[in-house]
Protein backbone atom coordinates (compact mmCIF):
# COMPACT_ATOMS: atom_id res chain seq x y z
CA UNK A 1 0.00 0.00 0.00
CA UNK A 2 1.40 3.38 -1.03
CA UNK A 3 0.70 5.96 1.66
CA UNK A 4 0.88 9.62 0.57
CA UNK A 5 3.00 11.85 2.81
CA UNK A 6 1.29 14.08 5.35
CA UNK A 7 2.91 16.76 7.49
CA UNK A 8 3.09 15.77 11.18
CA UNK A 9 1.10 17.92 13.62
CA UNK A 10 2.68 21.30 14.35
CA UNK A 11 5.66 20.58 12.07
CA UNK A 12 7.88 23.61 11.62
CA UNK A 13 11.37 24.18 10.28
CA UNK A 14 13.55 26.11 12.72
CA UNK A 15 16.70 25.97 10.58
CA UNK A 16 15.68 25.25 6.98
CA UNK A 17 16.28 21.65 5.92
CA UNK A 18 18.41 21.03 9.02
CA UNK A 19 16.28 21.27 12.15
CA UNK A 20 12.54 20.99 12.71
CA UNK A 21 10.15 20.60 15.63
CA UNK A 22 6.86 18.76 15.61
CA UNK A 23 4.32 17.10 17.81
CA UNK A 24 4.24 13.32 17.83
CA UNK A 25 4.26 11.87 14.26
CA UNK A 26 1.76 9.10 14.96
CA UNK A 27 0.80 7.99 11.45
CA UNK A 28 2.77 6.28 8.68
CA UNK A 29 2.03 9.25 6.39
CA UNK A 30 3.89 11.51 8.85
CA UNK A 31 6.94 9.28 8.64
CA UNK A 32 6.76 9.42 4.83
CA UNK A 33 6.72 13.23 5.03
CA UNK A 34 9.71 13.28 7.39
CA UNK A 35 11.68 11.00 5.06
CA UNK A 36 10.78 13.12 2.02
CA UNK A 37 12.23 16.15 3.83
CA UNK A 38 15.61 14.35 4.03
CA UNK A 39 15.37 14.03 7.77
CA UNK A 40 17.35 11.04 8.97
CA UNK A 41 17.22 11.52 12.75
CA UNK A 42 14.27 11.84 15.09
CA UNK A 43 14.90 12.99 18.65
CA UNK A 44 11.88 11.57 20.47
CA UNK A 45 11.07 13.17 23.83
CA UNK A 46 8.90 11.05 26.12
CA UNK A 47 7.80 11.19 29.72
CA UNK A 48 7.98 7.39 29.74
CA UNK A 49 10.94 5.21 28.84
CA UNK A 50 9.18 3.78 25.79
CA UNK A 51 9.50 5.34 22.37
CA UNK A 52 6.42 7.13 21.19
CA UNK A 53 7.16 6.46 17.52
CA UNK A 54 5.40 3.69 15.63
CA UNK A 55 7.40 0.50 15.18
CA UNK A 56 7.39 0.87 11.39
CA UNK A 57 9.92 3.73 11.65
CA UNK A 58 12.74 1.43 12.68
CA UNK A 59 15.36 1.04 10.00
CA UNK A 60 14.28 4.08 8.01
CA UNK A 61 15.12 6.65 10.67
CA UNK A 62 17.62 6.92 13.47
CA UNK A 63 15.52 7.40 16.59
CA UNK A 64 17.07 8.72 19.78
CA UNK A 65 14.74 8.53 22.79
CA UNK A 66 15.09 11.07 25.58
CA UNK A 67 13.28 10.66 28.86
CA UNK A 68 12.12 14.11 29.99
CA UNK A 69 9.09 14.42 32.29
CA UNK A 70 6.32 16.53 30.76
CA UNK A 71 6.69 20.21 31.60
CA UNK A 72 10.30 19.94 32.73
CA UNK A 73 13.55 20.80 30.98
CA UNK A 74 16.18 18.48 29.52
CA UNK A 75 19.20 18.04 31.78
CA UNK A 76 22.58 19.49 30.86
CA UNK A 77 23.92 16.20 29.52
CA UNK A 78 20.90 15.84 27.20
CA UNK A 79 21.39 19.41 25.95
CA UNK A 80 25.08 18.85 25.25
CA UNK A 81 24.43 15.54 23.49
CA UNK A 82 21.80 17.19 21.32
CA UNK A 83 24.16 19.99 20.25
CA UNK A 84 26.81 17.37 19.44
CA UNK A 85 24.26 15.33 17.46
CA UNK A 86 23.31 18.44 15.49
CA UNK A 87 26.98 19.09 14.67
CA UNK A 88 27.28 15.55 13.28
CA UNK A 89 24.07 15.92 11.27
CA UNK A 90 25.30 19.25 9.90
CA UNK A 91 28.56 17.67 8.74
CA UNK A 92 26.63 14.89 7.01
CA UNK A 93 24.05 17.24 5.49
CA UNK A 94 21.24 15.46 7.34
CA UNK A 95 18.06 16.87 8.78
CA UNK A 96 16.89 16.35 12.35
CA UNK A 97 13.42 16.65 13.83
CA UNK A 98 12.74 16.98 17.55
CA UNK A 99 9.36 15.54 18.45
CA UNK A 100 7.46 15.32 21.67
CA UNK A 101 3.83 14.77 22.51
CA UNK A 102 2.91 18.39 21.95
CA UNK A 103 6.09 19.84 20.36
CA UNK A 104 6.43 22.56 22.98
CA UNK A 105 8.66 23.03 26.03
CA UNK A 106 11.41 20.42 26.19
CA UNK A 107 11.86 20.38 22.42
CA UNK A 108 12.17 24.17 22.48
CA UNK A 109 14.93 23.98 25.10
CA UNK A 110 16.98 21.53 23.02
CA UNK A 111 16.53 23.62 19.90
CA UNK A 112 17.35 26.79 21.86
CA UNK A 113 20.63 25.31 23.12
CA UNK A 114 21.65 24.46 19.58
CA UNK A 115 20.72 27.91 18.28
CA UNK A 116 22.72 29.63 21.05
CA UNK A 117 25.79 27.66 19.98
CA UNK A 118 25.07 28.15 16.28
CA UNK A 119 24.34 31.88 16.37
CA UNK A 120 26.46 32.82 19.40
CA UNK A 121 23.65 34.75 21.06
CA UNK A 122 22.24 35.25 24.54
CA UNK A 123 19.43 33.10 26.00
CA UNK A 124 16.92 35.97 26.03
CA UNK A 125 17.39 36.41 22.28
CA UNK A 126 16.73 32.71 21.71
CA UNK A 127 13.62 32.69 23.92
CA UNK A 128 12.20 35.73 22.12
CA UNK A 129 13.11 34.34 18.70
CA UNK A 130 11.55 30.94 19.35
CA UNK A 131 8.41 32.46 20.85
CA UNK A 132 8.11 34.76 17.86
CA UNK A 133 8.23 31.94 15.31
CA UNK A 134 6.65 29.28 17.53
CA UNK A 135 4.63 30.86 20.37
CA UNK A 136 3.94 27.55 22.11
CA UNK A 137 7.61 26.84 22.85
CA UNK A 138 9.53 27.16 26.14
CA UNK A 139 6.69 27.08 28.63
CA UNK A 140 8.21 27.20 32.12
CA UNK A 141 10.78 29.18 34.09
CA UNK A 142 12.73 25.94 34.61
CA UNK A 143 13.05 25.62 30.84
CA UNK A 144 14.19 29.24 30.54
CA UNK A 145 16.70 28.67 33.35
CA UNK A 146 18.14 25.65 31.56
CA UNK A 147 18.89 27.83 28.55
CA UNK A 148 20.69 30.30 30.82
CA UNK A 149 22.73 27.51 32.43
CA UNK A 150 23.64 26.03 29.05
CA UNK A 151 24.77 29.42 27.79
CA UNK A 152 27.19 29.69 30.72
CA UNK A 153 28.95 26.57 29.40
CA UNK A 154 29.55 28.03 25.96
CA UNK A 155 32.98 29.54 25.57
CA UNK A 156 33.75 31.72 22.54
CA UNK A 157 36.49 29.27 21.54
CA UNK A 158 33.90 26.46 21.46
CA UNK A 159 31.55 28.43 19.25
CA UNK A 160 33.81 29.41 16.35
CA UNK A 161 32.87 26.43 14.19
CA UNK A 162 29.20 27.42 14.35
CA UNK A 163 29.71 30.87 12.84
CA UNK A 164 27.59 30.32 9.73
CA UNK A 165 26.46 33.94 9.76
CA UNK A 166 29.93 35.01 8.57
CA UNK A 167 29.77 32.84 5.46
CA UNK A 168 28.63 34.30 2.12
CA UNK A 169 25.00 33.66 1.29
CA UNK A 170 23.52 32.60 -2.01
CA UNK A 171 20.05 33.63 -3.09
CA UNK A 172 17.46 31.43 -4.73
CA UNK A 173 16.40 34.20 -7.10
CA UNK A 174 18.40 36.43 -9.43
CA UNK A 175 18.69 39.90 -7.92
CA UNK A 176 21.17 41.35 -10.41
CA UNK A 177 18.43 43.48 -11.99
CA UNK A 178 17.98 45.46 -8.80
CA UNK A 179 19.63 48.87 -9.00
CA UNK A 180 20.62 50.85 -5.96
CA UNK A 181 20.55 54.62 -5.94
CA UNK A 182 22.26 56.83 -3.42
CA UNK A 183 19.98 58.31 -0.80
CA UNK A 184 19.29 61.99 -1.05
CA UNK A 185 20.36 64.22 1.80
CA UNK A 186 18.16 66.92 3.27
CA UNK A 187 20.13 69.62 1.40
CA UNK A 188 19.45 67.90 -1.93
CA UNK A 189 15.69 67.75 -1.45
CA UNK A 190 13.66 70.52 -3.04
CA UNK A 191 10.60 71.50 -1.10
CA UNK A 192 9.62 74.24 -3.58
Write the layout of secondary structure elements.
Layout: E1 12-15, E2 19-23, H1 28-36, E3 39-46, E4 62-67, H2 76-92, E5 95-100, H3 105-119, H4 123-133, H5 141-153, H6 156-159
Parallel strand pairs: 2-5, 3-4, 3-5
Antiparallel strand pairs: 1-2
Helix pairs in contact: 2-3, 3-4, 3-5
Write a structural description:
The protein has a 5-stranded mixed sheet, sandwiched between helices. The model is unreliable at 158-192 (pLDDT under 50). The chain is of the alpha/beta class and 192 residues long. Helix 2 crosses helix 3 and helix 3 crosses helix 4. It has helices at 28-36, 76-92, 105-119, 123-133, 141-153, 156-159; strands at 12-15, 19-23, 39-46, 62-67, 95-100. The termini are far apart. Strand 1 (12-15) and strand 2 form a beta hairpin. It contains 6 helices and 5 strands; from the N terminus they run E-E-H-E-E-H-E-H-H-H-H. The longest helix has 17 residues, at 76-92. It has one domain: Protein-Tyrosine Phosphatase, Chain A (Alpha-Beta Complex).
The CATH architecture comes to Alpha-Beta Complex
Please indicate the percent range of residues in DSSP E strands (runs of 2 or more): 15-25%
Spatial order of strands in the largest sheet? 1-2-5-3-4
Mean residue pLDDT: 79
Helix content: 25-40%
Briefly characterize the structure.
With 192 residues, the protein is α/β, with parallel strands linked by helices. It has a single domain (12-155), classed as Protein-Tyrosine Phosphatase, Chain A. Helices cover 36% and strands 15% of the residues.
Key features?
alpha/beta; single chain; globular; 5 strands; Protein-Tyrosine Phosphatase, Chain A; 192 residues; five-stranded mixed sheet; disordered C terminus
Amino acid sequence: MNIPPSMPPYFQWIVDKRLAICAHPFHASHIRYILEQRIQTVISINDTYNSGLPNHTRGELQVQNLYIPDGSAPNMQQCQQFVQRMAIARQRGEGVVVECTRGKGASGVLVGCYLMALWQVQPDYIVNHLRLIRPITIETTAQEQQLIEFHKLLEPSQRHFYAEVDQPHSWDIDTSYLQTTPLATTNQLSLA
